[in-house]
Amino acid sequence: MSESLPADAKPFEFTGNAKEWFGIWIVNLLLSIVTLGIYSAWAKVRTKKYFHNHTYVEGRNFDYHATGKQILIGRLIVIAAVVVFQIITAILPALGLILLIGLLFAYPWLIVRSMIFNARMTSFSNVRFGFVGTVGQAFMTFLVYPLLMALTLYTTFPIWDRAMKRFSIDNHKLGQAKFKMDAALGPFYKAFLVAIAWIIVTGLIGVLLTGFNFAEFAYAMESMDNDPGQGAAIVGLFYLLFFIAFLPAAFIYQAMTRNVVYNNTTLEGGHRFASNVTAPQLLWLAVTNMIVVVFTLFLMLPWAQVRMSRYLASHTGFIPGGSMDDFVTQQQEAGGAIGDAYTDLEGIDVGLPI
């Protein structure tokens, strides 16, 4: 059983339903197929708008203001850059290498551009979000930290994960009110070690119960043509053990760190957040959603998405530090002059999971 949200927390609420969302989702899918992917830009906008509009806290909901045209232009810019890079690489390989290094250093700029766009296109109770992160911060977070993590054999993954979340949260604002995450590093390492312990324990139990070893797996992969039945059985067993060991570990880490992040995040004005998701509940939802979606040939995907959104919303709380009416009015007045300052931004979106 999970602990309850604090008594003064106002739970988020997701009011969408699977039947309604299925109608939008299937139209998005069919039109994206018919238009060879062009409509997917508008599909993305309809998806974000639906889930934002149906997420409430204290009777106020979110909204998404981007247009399909903005998203499409952003994608075309990225595609054009990739095509030009491929052509130059084919004609002048040496120059292509230089461009590759340049693109590597351009990645932080793309991240910042993406986060500015997504923030400005999102609002809560008619108050726009904002993002003030710099390219230098993005460079450290997404290039330097991963390099150091690789050099330390990924034992510093919790440090990088916390850095990513800090980069995202601390640089966001609602109107002119800034967000701040003040989570210690210890809980991230605790979640990391618990997840690793799960992998080791379940892996050892699985090996002891099945007699599986990597030498057999390697041999099975090499002899698939000679004995496909036995090879497929061994490979299937490997993936089953992998599924049992790594999938729960991922949800253990996600649940533990999500709670730490939300419970240590504030919004200027004395407002706080809370979260009480649990790894068993997240895992149960994910596994049952996956089973239902696969066995219905993905037709139940909208149901699974609504189910997960409803769970996450109900286990997330907002603890106001004062009158929400006064806060919203103050931020609307402060942000009114810049509310539409980014309406012409291209929708470049690198899809960061933070």
From TrEMBL:
Keywords from the named record? Membrane, Transmembrane, Transmembrane helix
| Annotated signal peptide | none
Quote any Pfam family the record assigns.
DUF898
Question: Where, by residue number, does the polypeptide cross the bilayer?
Answer: 22-42, 76-109, 129-157, 188-212, 232-253, 282-304
UniProt name for this protein: Uncharacterized membrane protein YjgN, DUF898 family
Task: Give the organism, scientific name.
Answer: Litoreibacter albidus
